[in-house]
Amino acid sequence: MLLRSQESNRLQHEYSMNRRFASSIDKNHIGQNLTFIGWLEDFRDMGKIGFISVRDMTGNFQGVLTGELLSGLREIPRQSVIVVNGTIQDTRAENFQVEVRVEKVELLSRAINPLPIDPTGRVKSSLDNRLDSRALDLRNFKISNIFRTRSYVLHLIRKFLYSKMFVEVNTPKIIGTATEGGADLFGFEYFSKKAFLAQSPQLYKEQLTLGLERVFEISSYFRAEPSHTVRHLSEFVSVDLEAAFLQYGDIMDIVQDLIISTINDLYVHYDKQMAYFENKQDIMVDKIPRITYEKCLEDLKSLGEKIEFGDDLSDPALKKLGEIYSKFYFIIDWPTKLKPFYILEHDKKSEFSRSFDLQYGYLEIVSGGTREHDSERLKNKLLEKGLNPKSFSDHLQTFEWGMPPHSGCGLGFDRFIMILTNSTNIREVVLYPRDTERLSP
Ligand code: ATP
Ligand code: MG
């Protein structure tokens, strides 16, 4: 029966104190009277008897109703929030160990009918429609699993980096000078000045090695690139590291261990969630190969793709490389001219830089390298790249305070999650993506 308000208060108190979760009931609970809260996912009305499927954050349970309760249920639209109280009993249903013989139902919050999308996924919606109703989209387990996995991976990354003696920092996202040069910054009025949204924490994290040695930052960054791809957003999350006294090879070791330990942990502790993504065999690795940029050019040549030394690897070229090196691989020692001013070149072969990208197939996940730590040479590098050292005076002065040799990288967190969750579009793994078209919700 649907309850009147006095009884309803009692039930509300009861459920907040004694609420059970769908996944927590089994045959040991048979005969017990228990209370649940959740969303009415499904209602099968057979006339004299009805079955409901109710979802909470742990899963679904089945309830059986008859009589007055059944007619009450007919008034409740799917996806409304209900409180269900009843006795646990054995079931003949295939997907459940037990079911709830429903004794009380209360409607807590009504959902409109029809909803803009079907969160069960039975009626398919386009990604755009789903993003327009993202909060509702998360009621689909497969989708919410992406974001649970995302959250767990953040936890794993932090745990891993602490174990390597890194300190988490927070640097400003409102900045006064264009960090790395380049035109892809969002600018805005900042009181009477012009300010920008940070495209990376590059300069700050380098400076912080001077006092903290090893730092990392996990944050959103902003790029005003009008890209229309499945891997670029205007706002994305990056995991940035920077470490004093390490070389780019050491950073690659750290990245490799981070990737392998994250994937292994997911398959041990997150096996159920990972099963949804159906990519187990593909992403497991035990070592990540390091291939020079020059070797990539040779490989590409043998595949009929001619790239001149010094040219960037185009999308079609990266797709071809992705066929040879299908999982994770590093491309190392990029031409100096392709890398930003702060990357150190090799001593004897200055046309090559001490840099790497981590790829997964065609997708770039990480960029990193050994940094220039000499202030005079850094000034020259700025000039060579057409940048004005005066705009970098705050940064350059720190290089005269005993700047340690240092290296680091930035890992595109959303792209990493794409791989872990077998998603083909970055928008699938970002709650509220921002791109050239999308600014809301
Ligand atoms: P790409 O060549 O794919 O545009 P990038 O070389 O410009 O990337 P970096 O400046 O090296 O990017 O940034 C470090 C990492 O941050 C990249 O390897 C990528 O994983 C991620 N990243 C960069 N730009 C974006 C973006 N617009 N959207 C999502 N992730 C990004
Ligand atoms: Mg890069």
Top keywords for this entry?
32% helix, five-stranded mixed beta barrel, BirA Bifunctional Protein, domain 2, binds adenosine-5'-triphosphate, alpha+beta, OB fold (Dihydrolipoamide Acetyltransferase, E2P), 14 helices, binds magnesium ion, 441 residues, eight-stranded mixed β-sheet, elongated, 2 domains
Structure description:
With 441 residues, this protein is an alpha+beta fold. It has 2 domains: 2-109, Nucleic acid-binding proteins (OB fold (Dihydrolipoamide Acetyltransferase, E2P)); 137-429, BirA Bifunctional Protein, domain 2 (2-Layer Sandwich), CATH 3.30.930.10. Helix content is 32%, strand content 25%. The protein contains 14 helices and 16 strands. The chain has helices at residues 5-18, 67-73, 127-132, 134-137, 141-163, 202-212, 248-269, 271-275, 280-283, 293-302, 315-324, 375-384, 393-398, 413-420; strands at residues 33-45, 49-56, 59-66, 81-90, 98-109, 167-168, 174-175, 187-190, 193-197, 214-222, 235-244, 290-292, 328-332, 355-360, 363-370, 406-412. Strands 6-10-11-16-15-14-13-12 form an 8-stranded mixed β-sheet. Strands 1-2-3-5-4 form a 5-stranded mixed beta barrel. α5 crosses α7. The model has no long low-confidence stretch (mean pLDDT 93). It binds adenosine-5'-triphosphate (ATP) and magnesium ion. Adenosine-5'-triphosphate binds at residues 223, 225, 232-233, 236, 238, 364-367, 410, 412, 414-415, 426. The site of adenosine-5'-triphosphate (ATP) has 15 residues, from β11, β15, β16 and α14.
